[in-house]
Structure formats: C-alpha cells, structure tokens
Amino acid sequence: xxxxxxxxxxxxxxxxxxxxxxxxxxxxxxxxxxxxxxxxxxxxxxxxxxxxxxxxxxxxxxxxxxxxxxxxxxxxxxxxxxxxxxxxxxxxxxxxxxxxxxxxxxxxxxxxxxxxxxxxxxxxxxxxxxxxxxxxxxxxxxxxxxxxxxxxxxxxxxxxxxxxxxxxxxxxxxxxxxxxxxxxxxxxxxxxxxxxxxxxxxxxxxxxxxxxxxxxxxxxxxxxxx
Length: 226
Hints:
alpha+beta, four-stranded antiparallel sheet, 4 helices, elongated
C-alpha cells in the first residue's frame, strides 16, 4: 500500500511536468529565398508572449519555440514570407492643382488654415500618369510629364495584410537649377487598391494629388513562345 501511495504521489508530481511539456512546440526553418534577417521583424509581430526566436545568421536558419497552435500559424507565415522576390507594377497618377494664377493657396500670416478640402475637391489643370516596375528591395522611378518624377524603394511585401511597404516614396519637381522634393516619406500601401496622397508646394501656389496603386504581378515560369 505504501508503494502504491508512493507511486500515486510520483504520478501526481510527474503529471504537471508532462502538461508543461505539451504547452510549447519548436519549429526550425531554413530560409530558401530570403535573408533570415528580413523576416524577423514580421515574425516577431506574431510571436506569442512566451515565444522565443533563435537565429543562426550564418546558416540562414531560425528556430521558433511557442504554443503548438501558434507554431502552426508561424509555419504558414514563414511559407508566405520565404518566397522568391515579388514583382510589382505601381500605377501612378499625378494631378497638379493651381489656385488662381499669381495667388497663393494659403496666405502667409498668423492662424491655421486646412487646405485638405481644397486639395480633394479642386479640378486639376494638369494630369500625368505612369507605371513604375520594381521588385521587392529595389528602387525605381518614373517621369510624370517632363516636370515631375516619382521615386520609390520597395522595402517588402506582407502577404498576410497584402501591403507593400516603401522605405522611400517621393514626388520630385525637376527644375533647371536642381530637383526640388515636394514630399518624401515612407508608407505601406494596400496591394490592388488606390491610395491618394495630398501635398502643397513650398510657395503654396500649387497643390498635388498623387494616386498610387501597387499591383502584384504573376510569376511567369514558362518560356515565351518564339
């Protein structure tokens, strides 16, 4: 009887250890198409509170320890992230808005004036359009007429949110004395949807509506027909 009781005590002591062991799982992933450092920020976003990441940069591999249910999610995420570099066509359309010629949109002086509605509702006096072709991680540009240029650098595509991140997105006015940056920044734009950016010139005499729509291009594996 003592032996049985002792065994039952051992069983009760071992049971929590078994339960704890089942609350975590491990996944080791060797990157095939991407540098492991490029996926770490996105992977860390979905890592559980008790999750852990171990990275071997030389071998381009990572090991994730997390809840079994989250490991399944992270495996699917890695399958989407570890893909060949994607190619995009970014449709761009620039509308140049002029106030009455010779007059500024905003009058210099004290106070605050919101020109958003004017930028949204005004009819353009000039319209230009172009398409920027680029891969993830690449920089590219396209002329909009003879005076303007849009410059893009694609940082990476998130397949779960279907957004293409740009580390650089700039609209430039090309002038004889040198290029003038009308606006510059970073953005994450939805794939297949239009995003409109509004800006005014430094002299407050022009406004600009820049429309951008990134399109994910299909991967072509077959050879072209001669």
